[in-house]
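Researcher: Structure prediction, please.
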Amino acid sequence: MRDVREAIRGSIPALITPMRGGAIDEAAFRNFVAWQIAQGSHGLVPMGTTGESATVSHEEHMRAVELCVEEANGRVPVIAGAGSNATAEAIALTRHAKEVGADAVLSVEPYYNKPSQEGLYRHFAAIAEAVDIPILVYNIPGRCVIEMSVETMARLSRIANIVGVKDATANLMRPSRERLACAKGWRLISGEDGTALGYMAHGGHGCISVTANVAPRLCAQFQNACMKGDFAAALALQDKLMPLHDAMFVEPSPAPAKYGASLLGLCENEVRLPIVPLSEPAEKRVREAMANAGII
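Model: Predicted structure follows.
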């Protein structure tokens, strides 16, 4: 296993997947990856929630991961979305991510099934046993209905290639509790842009970000300030970014991020059903937030 644990840090955009005419726009996706790296992003997550992983085919999912790995070309870590509510499917996606050269995977808790804590443990342990690649557990009770307990996370942290968590609970007590309970070296990655400042102050290592799709340089600067312990500078950037963090969820994601990216000429304003393009009032709010942040 390539130990990329320390490299999982900073601003890591959960990449949108550019589409054109109902299909992945491969050229736009490559350009988007290159732009993200040039803007200072510290890592990349293709095929997360923001990448519309729930509505792409397996073939599209795997192709997006391949494109991201190829375009990144080792410049920053690629943490491929590879989760599923079916353990066998998660193993297959994780195996593919390793085969094409991803540095790590982001593996969401099984959604819809509502497994027990023991079921959660066995699910992730099975993936880790099947594929020797660093794994970030994705704890997002708002989408999965279930929430992994700190105790279950501590058990998983003792498995060598389960290296950390993406925490989308917005509960700022969790990072401190997990830091104390989990094995040494456990990576604490926020999954909530709005609470990332507090999360970093609690010992976090970075954020898998939606806002970084449209404001990668500002998000990278924010994370750089946090990692240096300059929380005064980070707070000033937080105030600049907070309206944009809110705007990214004014309507179901990733419609706001895709609209914002389209304003920057990075992709078409196209999402896949059941997500729909933004309403006019929502477009106005995204434009205003981007203007407030000095992006447009």
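Model: The chain has a mean pLDDT of 97.
Researcher: Thanks, that helps.
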